[in-house]
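Give me structure tokens for this 439-residue protein.
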Amino acid sequence: MMWAYKSVFYQVYPLGFCGAPEENDGCSAPAEPGLGRFADWIPHLERLGADAVYFCPVFESDRHGYDTRDFRVIDRRLGTNEGFAALCRQLHQKGIRVVLDGVFHHVGRGFWAFQDVLKNREASPYRDWFHINFSGSNGYNDGLWYEGWEGHYELVKLNLKNQQVKDHLFSCIEGWVREFGIDGLRLDVAYSLDRDFLASLRSFCDGLKQDFFLVGEMIGGDYNQIMNGQMCHSVTNYECRKGLYSSFNSMNLFEIGHSLLRQFGPEPWTLYRGKHLLSFVDNHDVTRAASILNNPQHLPLLYALMFGMPGIPCLYYGSEWGVTGRKEDGDPALRPYLEKPEENELTRQLARMAAARRQSRALCCGSYASLVLTNHQIIFERAFEGERVLVAVNAAAEPYVAHFNANAGRAVDLISGEPHDFGGGSELPPYSAFFWRVE
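Here you go.
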């Protein structure tokens, strides 16, 4: 089984984490310690049970990281290549894998090859690296037109069918493996990437490093378009992210129950049975879970469903102790500087859930079957090679007694370690969650 399918991911937005200036002036000395300060968070990750870190963009960029200037150099606002390599070594020494953001659809206007085009126009050897019309113009009045990502001219679309572009990007990835020892890539706007490029990327990475993990950003549509044996191993599960929080806010767990059956259930038409999507409740692009839930007591239950459902759980830095942030307040609200990690009861609950998942192959890769589904309660089974775990959540403010055929008399809760007897019905206290391993 690929390492990622058994992992708990921890996502960090480095420029926010470091409190970096919004603009990259291109001449300041590299920050010190920059992203190297994340080394102080490693003990926190170990206590939390996270064994893979996904870093949002770390390479030299114009502003926010997704507008790359140079894929070969760590952003000066985050430090140096040597400093980041040292951080990766420290993470690896603790058994924590490293996944970087691969922003290959577009670059920033400061990208060195695009700057050459602006200077030399038709005479530039890089003119075919982009989608350019020298007879047009754009919002920057460059005297030429080019295609940007979804109309954003600060994000210059790369021509991924150009072999020179592919060679450059692949050589950079090879350099990241050689210099930093990275273990995988999260592919930004993977839904917009050329499919032939994706297939070439997968083939290249398969030959570059064993079990090199590719997870693509998908917002909607059929995830199988790019999650298959020729492209990505996994994609971001935005469908269930929405279903998770809105099920609690509307007190209608049928919504998430329907999504889980549609994606992973036993029916022949199930879309993603046996696949491992990246599960999350928030990230750098969406409102934090602690801000979007109407009832704070639902927060640990939200995470319980995320850890219990099929997929690879991913935690966003700070949310594990309840940091807030709303999308409507802008990117800085979602990507804050955090001086040091905090640990509270929510953090400890998540650590217990992560430990439960780590000791259960059924939770990592088991099948999905619905046992009980009401507006306020959900119980489902995960099963793998004889191991059975029942995930039970009561979102109501009142206790609930569930009657269902568990095909067993006793179990142990993997979260608390407490025994459980199925005889006479299973009582779920208010706002409770359990991972019962059937004995």
